[in-house]
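Appendix B. Raw example, untouched.
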Amino acid sequence: MFLSISTSTGDGDGDGVPASDLGFLLHKHPARVHTATVTAGTVTVVYPIATPQECTVALVLEVDPVALVRGVGRRPESFALGQYVNDRPYAASSLLAVAMGAVFRTAMAGRCTARPELVDRRWPLAVHVPAVPARGGAALVERLFRPLGWDVDARPVPLDATRPDWGDSRYVDLRLRGDLRLADALTHLYVLLPVLDDAKHYWVGADEVDKLLRAGAAWLPGHPEQDLITRRYLAHRRELVLSAIGRLAEVDDAVPEALDNAVPPDVDEAPDGPGETPGETPKVPLVLRRHAAVLAEVRAAGAGRVVDWGCGEGALVRGLLALPEVTEVTGVDVSARALEIAARRLRLDRMSERARERVRLVQSSLTYTDARLAGRDVAVLMEVVEHLDPERLPALEQAVFGAARPATVIVTTPNAEHNVRYETLAAGTLRHPDHRFEWTRAEFAAWADRVADRYGYGVRTEPVGDDDPEVGPPTQLAVLTRRDR
């Protein structure tokens, strides 16, 4: 199992840093051979080239396939010798990631006592991993590495070079190039090589969540394939995936309740316009008008069981519990911290047993199918969709409309056209720093129509707040009703 990382001064950027100084960051002297023992076998780190102009470090993992299975008991394999005849000694996988963690741990953490000024330097790096199992092919390799700043060359390895008619194997010869910090490059490989293999060759426990967040904290929250990376890295173990997604959400959005605000607080308190004229009766804040509009639609739907997706700290949950016709409210959020705050604000510990039976708080993700949330009368997504990257919307649609299939779905989102009415909002900016996009009325209607057609819903859109004749309302609402109900 082989990995190499190279750099060169090339034409140089004028900083006079020799390529061989890469050894300081790796904490491995270029003039020596470094070895370490891991569960899978022996790790060797050498420098085939180490000059001021060019430096290459190579990591070789010699896997002992017998030692890997000794004492682990019988495992189901595709054939009797499957534990001994496999690709583990050759294909880059979680075993290589473990080896990297063992010999490059300090470099991955971005620490260098001897030359701290090198830590944040962006190096022209070239990475080569000759055999990477890629479940998803070269296209998935591109989707994983390119958003991180890499130029990607992932060439499928033929099953047999002498028999091209047999086609390609599931392995790729991977080459990456990019100007990156070395610590970032190492963490990319540490996380994404096991993700491409979609397998872990050891027991995956709760500590793997910590490993993922430590390695991916700087880049995973904003990665368009965050969900896929998280699921595969954690071996599709549901409870671990939800824990990781929740903690990533808290990194990405430090204030859970902010998900319920359509504009910055100083603007939102002034409800739905640029300000109030002295002497006028103060308007109802937009956030309260939005809550009222959603609650009115819930009542109109005759809902008994309601799920509030992206419930944050429970403001809407409290309003839903005040409706006598609502018999059960499930508040869902990916952030465990938000749910803890919601439980305190709702005073769940002080509720009577009967009242407590009406409410549940569940940690789950909008982009993750969850059977616990299926079959509700109404699902509410209030100021939620705009916090997802556009690439993740199809996963949300499948989870809500395809899997959960509530009878009615109520969606609210900001109207981007109305942003010009906020004097304190700079032109071209979004209403909240965590918003990934904001739709115009036409874009929102097109999205709602497409989802309705695909999943068998009818759709109606409504304004929320003062409906400006030129730019429309500050908030737009859609009610999607299942046609087969």
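End of appendix B.
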